[in-house]
Amino acid sequence: MKLMERTQLPNLETIVDRFFSEFPFGIDIQLPRLTAPLPPLDVYENAGTYVVELAVPGYLPKDIKVEVTGSTLTIYGAYVINDDKAQAKYHHREIRRGSFQRTVTLPQELNPEAVTAKVENGFLIVTLAPKTPIAAKAIPVLGV
């Protein structure tokens, strides 16, 4: 019996996809995610500062915590479900609730005294200033 190389073995996702694609009656079955998705974020530079935007629809400012340590920004959030929704019988559920933690390491040390954070239109916008100004550096291009 010839052993298959590890790279030739199908992974679990392939096996499950194959099983359900051959399932009778054309039923579209979607398995639940094993982990909850994290809120998406953007990180960019603007006017000498770093800006981090994080999608937090439904979260209140009091439900979000922002910390800066060195060059690392950590954002925590906890969505509190009210009693009416906690007791409800859901027929379909896609809206993400619960807690999350996102950590971003930026290329420079940050000034913790120059950080602002606000929730606006479902986005957390964090503006961070580096300890030393962001400056462009000319790099000489060498030939062969």
- Report the helical percentage: 10-25%
Question: How many strands, what sense, and barrel or not for the largest sheet?
Answer: 4 strands, antiparallel
Computed over alpha carbons, the radius of gyration is 23 Å
Number of beta strands: 7
User: Helix/strand-derived class?
Assistant: mainly beta
* Level-2 CATH architecture of the domain at 35-130: Sandwich
Q: What is the ordering of alpha helices and beta strands?
A: HEEEEHEEE
Explained architecture:
The structure is a single chain. This protein has a domain at 35-130: Immunoglobulin-like (Sandwich). It is 10% helix and 36% strand. It has helices spanning 12-21, 83-87; strands at residues 41-46, 49-55, 64-69, 72-78, 99-105, 110-120, 123-130.
Give a summary of the structure in a few sentences.
The protein has 144 residues and is mainly β.
